[in-house]
Specification:
With about 400 residues, the protein is mostly beta strands. It folds into four domains: about 5-120, Immunoglobulin-like, CATH 2.60.40.10; about 125-215, Immunoglobulins (Immunoglobulin-like, Sandwich), CATH 2.60.40; about 215-300, Immunoglobulins (Immunoglobulin-like, Sandwich), CATH 2.60.40; about 305-395, Immunoglobulin-like. The protein is built from two helices and 30 strands. It has helices at about 5, 10-20; strands at about 35-45, 55-60, 65-70, 75-80, 85-90, 105-110, 115, 120, 125-135, 145-150, 160, 170-175, 175-185, 195-200, 210-215, 215-225, 235-240, 255, 260-265, 270-275, 280-285, 290, 295-300, 300-315, 325-330, 345, 350-360, 360-370, 380-385, 390-395. The strands form seven sheets. Strands 16, 19, 21, 23, 24, 27 and 30 form a seven-stranded mixed β-sheet that branches. Strands 1, 4, 7 and 8 form a four-stranded mixed β-sheet that branches. A four-stranded antiparallel β-sheet has the order 3-2-5-6. A hairpin with a 2-residue loop joins strand 2 (about 55-60) and strand 3. The longest helix has 11 residues, at about 10-20. The protein is flat. The relative contact order is 0.10.
Amino acid sequence: MALAGRMARSAVASVLALVATSVVAPAVADGGLGGSGSLAGLVSNAVTDAPVSGACVAAVQGNTVVTTANTASDGQYTISNLAPGHYVVVTCLTTTTLANERAPRVVKVVAGQTARVSTLALPAGYSISGTVDLATNAGPVPNACVELFDSTYNYTGTAPTTTNANGVFQLTNVAVGSYLVTTCLRSTSPFANQTAAVTVQSNVPTPGLALSLPLGGAISGVVTDAVSAQPLRGIEVVASAQGAPHNSDRLLPSYSDAAGRYTITNLAPGPYTISGGEQGDYAFGHPATATVRVGVTVGANLSGSPLGRVSGVVVDAATRRPVAHVCVVALRRGGTQGVPTYPATTSASGSFVVSGLIAGHYRLATCAVPRGFAPYRSRVLVSVTGLRTTVGVRLLLRPTH
């Protein structure tokens, strides 16, 4: 999944929460390693096309808000003193009548240059309010985290919020559409998270929601290397309720610690499928299953198959010069492209690296070639072993004229 896809979910929602509470990392100072760059753009009203003054804009890396800026009276903003690299740019409104942009922008910052960000057009914003209480009639739940997703559990641009002392919450800057409001407890609380559907309409009051939390349980286990049986650290583990919508399993992931152990809490009773998330070095093709029971932590272990890589160069068979912009894939023996990886594209020097390959034998083939060249498929098998790179592969593209 591309960077924009990975960031455009609960991680960015968490970033908006950080912005709302002013937890912002310091910007990189001028003259730092490799120098610094900037990014700039415009924030406008999607309905009127008018510039939006005073809008909060954040530059984000991972789950860290690097810095923020407010737009000027003409809607323009500039974020300076950024270290070179890729940033996700989001609006971080929390009080206006506009909604945040739902499509974060991914921008590459280069030292000494100002990257231009495409216009952030903000639609009209509304609010969703409700209460969180306990199904056991134990009263309201104060300080409960509440998040907003669209109907398929994707990021919406609305910052998460928490309930007040009376269990009341309000989500602001919400655009017209259909949504899922979910609690996001991440603790040893004995209660399970709950989700409710709601539709926001233009100029129509949104009915209040009541989220009643039932008693729940947890899933815990160990993640290991399928070959060495050693524990794996930093692996994302997700639990999906069987029959739940796509993406709902990634709302509350857990990450394995140094001993490979993970724990996912606040789960409603019922059967779950547990799997490893997207990882560059391991594939989790065999998910575990577990049935959550009230007040119980059930066990479910995972093992990941180590992945290898193939690197090489593509050259013109006639001139022996490198060929750029060639799409290269690896096909497992037997002719199927059953590999958990994305195709690689050659650089200006003709080099490529195909990653995410489970151990086995592969043929390399082109999935797209520049005009004037014939498609290529190797006759020689390349051996791949886990966590290693097979180097020195040379592909010769034959001209068609």
